[in-house]
Amino acid sequence: MLKYTIRRILAIVPMLFLISVVVFFLALAMPGDALSGEIDPNNSDPEYIEMMREKLGYNDPIHVQYYRWITDFIQGDFGTSVKYKMPVEDLIAQRLPNTIFLGIISLLFTYLFAFAMGMYAGKKPYTKIDHAIGGFNYLMLAIPIYIAGVFAIYLFSFKLGWFPFSGSVDIALTEGTAEWWLSRLYHVILPALVLGAMGTASYTQFLRNDIIDNSQKDYVRTARAKGTPESRIYNQHILRNSVIPLITFLGFDIVTIVNGALITETIFTYPGLGQLFLTSMQTNDYPTLMTLALMFSFLVLIGNLIADLLYGIVDPRIRVE
Questions:
Q1: Is residue 56 within 8 Å of 35, Cβ to Cβ?
Q2: Residues near 266 by beta carbon (within 8 Å), at least 6 away in sequence
Q3: Which residues form the ABC transmembrane type-1 domain (predicted)?
Q4: Mind listing the domains of the chain with CATH numbers?
């Protein structure tokens, strides 16, 4: 396992290098001028624009531009956002807590709903409630997240008025106070509920099917033959063995949060990294865009690594060579 872990970590380095090359050239291929947002909009003099190109290094060969960018990136210099006129690392530091908060709350919703529905459906399969849960899961799998987000805003914000449809906190409150934290929680519930509900379906079905499968195993039949109470069989044998594999999903949850936040934060105007990423695409904010693209790619690689390692740990039948 240790050798496998070291190999996987070392393999991340060349993969990140290849991703950085792809990200750099995709940014160059994007429509629009790389100078957008960096020059004075009131000055369209060709000589001034050419001077700015030379100053910013856009006339250098492509390989020179890439080397300069990736060297600065490795040293922790991510450049300056052309839209917000501030260092990219400071901009990300402002938005990162919101995305982490959204991700944590959405995971709580995911596991809460998945455990409740999966355990009930697995314990009482083929009942009306089980079929209802299955129908709900298939509906969640079929609905795109942007449709679910728009519907949630229409129902819970505009019609019922239960939750705000944008923002992350009431700006009138003093940061750090109890009211400020309650406001943050109040603003994050609806987008986290949408993001969490979309991931609940697969978890629920997995837990349900695993409970049904484990209830038919030989060790369960043996326990019943010995006269073990049914509640003890379910809690200590069936449920325990069915829940443990869900731990392996923690790695993939990182990928889910990253992918879901891109759409969810934009729909709810939630100021996180997902919204920042799409905004940087629309405004040709190349330093921010490329930094976030590499960050998201790194998180995906780390998430897959964690999932593989956890799977080998919780399931002793898996042997990583």
A1: yes
A2: 274, 275, 278
A3: 96-307
A4: 96-314 (1.10.3720.10)
